[in-house]
Design a protein that fits this description.
It contains 16 helices and 21 strands. The chain has two domains: 267 residues, Nitrilase/N-carbamoyl-D-aminoacid amidohydrolase (4-Layer Sandwich), CATH 3.60.110; 293 residues, HUPs (Rossmann fold, 3-Layer(aba) Sandwich). It starts with a strand and ends in a 10-residue tail after the last strand. The longest helix is centred in the middle third of the chain and has 22 residues. It binds nicotinic acid adenine dinucleotide (DND), adenosine-5'-triphosphate (ATP) and glutamine. Adenosine-5'-triphosphate binds next to helix 6 and strand 16. It is an enzyme of class 6 (ligase). InterPro entries: C-N_Hydrolase, C-N_Hydrolase_sf, Gln-dep_NAD_synthase, NAD/GMP_synthase, NAD_synthase, Rossmann-like_a/b/a_fold. It catalyses: deamido-NAD(+) + L-glutamine + ATP + H2O = L-glutamate + AMP + diphosphate + NAD(+) + H(+).
Amino acid sequence: MRIALCQINPTVGDLAGNVERILADARRAAEAGADLAVFPELCVTGYPPQDLLDRPAFLDDVDTAVQHVARELPASLGVLVGAPVRNETPVGKRLFNTALLLADGDLVDATSKTLLPTYDVFDEYRYFEPCPERKVMEWRGLRLGVHVCEDMWNNEDQAPYHLYASNPIDELAALGIDLFVNLSASPYAVGKPIERRLLIQESCREHGVPFVYVNQVGANTELVFDGDSQVQSAEGEVLYHAPLFEEAFSVWDTDAPGEPVESARLGTEVEEVTAQIHDALVLGVRDYVRKTGDGVFEKALIGLSGGIDSAVTCAIAAEALGPDRVVGITMPSAYSSSGSVSDSQALAENLGIEFHEVAIRPAVDAFEAMLAPLFEGTEEGVAEENVQARSRGVTLMAISNKFGHLLLTTGNKSEMAVGYATLYGDMSGGLAVLSDVLKTEVYRVAEDINRRAGREVIPRATITKPPSAELRPGQVDQDSLPPYDVLDAILVGYVEEHLSPEAIARETGYELALVERIAKMVDRNEYKRRQAAPGLRVTGKAFGSGRRLPIVMQRTRVDAAGHEETVEGAPAAAGVDA
Ligand SMILES: Nc1ncnc2c1ncn2[C@@H]1O[C@H](COP(=O)(O)OP(=O)(O)OC[C@H]2O[C@@H]([n+]3cccc(C(=O)O)c3)[C@H](O)[C@@H]2O)[C@@H](O)[C@H]1O
Ligand SMILES: Nc1ncnc2c1ncn2[C@@H]1O[C@H](COP(=O)(O)OP(=O)(O)OP(=O)(O)O)[C@@H](O)[C@H]1O
Ligand SMILES: NC(=O)CC[C@H](N)C(=O)O
């Protein structure tokens, strides 16, 4: 049997567009002599459809879209597509997350997802009822073990579960199948390609059954899907591997399976991981701009400080959209270094983007004069510093409003973790490009950008200067933060691995007092992150919908002797110098 792997990029809610994409690949599959075309999980709606699934009219439209796909398919081609299907019984959640086998105008067979991920960014049990039974789909004489995404992920590393009670892979194999077929919508995170590779390999080897895996590609809001569709032999050798971060189409023949191919871009080396992060961010920006509204965003807008974060954000935007669709604005204040303008200008020239200078001094002076009577007798401090960041925010949002540009925010994960950003200042904007990229990784992405270009795109001075908010004379980030390699190691433990300060101090060897101070900053700045622009997720634990912590909390505990101990307080107002 010839099987087409259709790694398409659906847009959430775009039923007409998604149907068109499915039919285009179905026609291609038929032309290539395929018997079956496999598409990703929920490809008719795009993943994740979230609460669109609560709208009856949307579900009616999905049914119509599926019928249309079936009707318009090339004759005798079978397609496996993912769509939500109503649960007609009166018990349980109202929908199933289903893989539909369509051919010749009809629904031939269907099977639904059993393991519904409900952790991190996934919320499937909110909508779907788990499928209680396993079945084999027969097509063109082959017994197919069709299942949906998480159904193949019954491994102990899946937070926050131990093993699921059911194991669809083992259960399908026990029914006697010729081939596993997985329809996925599995977002990228550092480490994911290698994890998938090994998981599929384990299933193949354990059961002696080959595996066809088809994943969605493209970005939908914060999630970036890398694709990574593949075929593995019964021995767990890779026979086909789709390119990451782009649409792909390929036909694989079960009767002529071919030789093992090179395992490319697994992300086992640091440079590979950095390159993957870079590609994920580029795709994330491109698809956000392309898929939001009615193509409202002709251009992206970035405040250029001469620093590393705005430079990397800008270079990614230029790659995603083309340099003619990116606008950089430098906005010097009284405390800006001369490099803030010249390095920004050099970056703009290197990228070939539109570039303007708007001095914020008149605005800052005006605010100071306006507030002088009220602030009389007080010491200068964060309030005055933040007026600068906010004057820049107002300026950028004015430009955004006037020309309809999308303002990109530049804060990285390290800064967003500890609240090192100004609300309604540099946090103004619609999409946070780097908010899941630690500062130490931002430097690696900058080097990667220059390496790929084979020239200096990000100016060397931008990479080597000490990071500074430039909100007061001589300020550098390290006045109030530990060096970024130290900070990032602590943040990985606290944010990504959920470790206690004590465990982090033990593991890293850093002083407990330092680790506790950072942990406290992370906790206290939850309110800021809740108001932040959505960010592109590239790690297993990003700020955003996959990390839900209370804003209002007091962390206390009782020691063994029954005494109350304050662990971390969360007073009503706290800046970064907690
Ligand atoms: N729990 C809570 N719930 C709701 N609101 C809360 C709150 N705690 C404080 N607030 C409010 O938040 C305000 C404080 O937040 P905010 O006004 O942003 O100000 P804040 O966090 O105090 O200051 C911003 C800090 O970020 C640094 N910064 C700024 C800009 C760029 C960079 C950089 O290098 O990238 C660094 C800057 O040096 C400064 O230390 C308080 O005045 C209060 O109104
Ligand atoms: N002089 C400036 N001109 C234009 N934009 C600025 C300027 N200063 C700050 N910004 C904007 O505010 C963001 C936060 O800047 P800041 O310099 O305070 O911190 P940062 O996190 O070190 O960022 P960067 O590495 O980009 O400098 C910048 O990324 C930039 O978008
Ligand atoms: N859509 C899904 O079921 C995704 C969950 C899965 N573990 C993944 O990320 O690959």
